[in-house]
Amino acid sequence: MLDKLPEPTRTICAVAAFTGLTRSEIQALKWSDYEDGEIKVQRKVVNGVVGAPKTAAREAGVPVPPLLRQILAKYKTNKSFPPVADDWMFYGQKEKKPINMDNLSRREILNSSMVGGLAGTRFVADSVLG
In the chain, which ranges are continuous DSSP H helix? Predict the structure, then answer.
């Protein structure tokens, strides 16, 4: 299923599935949060506002399995999503701010499910990103 999704949707869904991070945590990830095989949740984004994680426990490192490491490495070298000044991992193309997960769910995931015939993609949009 992931291979049928466009970037950055593919990588965002992989991060959600492999780490259990919330949409607000994924939206706020910076490349500097990912090192030595783990992701450290430093912030969250809710309604476009960057803030502290919900609990201190979230600031502990989340292990990144080998397959997700490969997916992140491939995404990082994708020339369509070059590094931006604020180091956001997933950002909107126009403003270079954290990506809007509602737009991503509506535009990318649901469109891919309709065009590509991805059974169960609505479930991903609703439960993983919603």
Answer: 9-19, 23-27, 66-76, 101-103, 110-116, 121-123
The DSSP output letter for 127 is: I
Q: Report the chain (130 residues): mean pLDDT per 10 consecutive residues.
A: 84 93 94 95 92 76 96 95 94 91 77 50 48
Distance, in Å, from the CA atom of 62 to the CA atom of 114, rounded to the nearest integer, reads 33
Q: Exposed/middle/buried for 77, CB within 10 Å: 0-12, 13-18, 19+?
A: exposed
Q: Where in the chain are the domains?
A: 2-128
Nearest CA to 68 out of 105, 23, 19 is that of 19
pTM of the model: 0.83
Cis peptide before 8 (omega within 30 of 0): yes
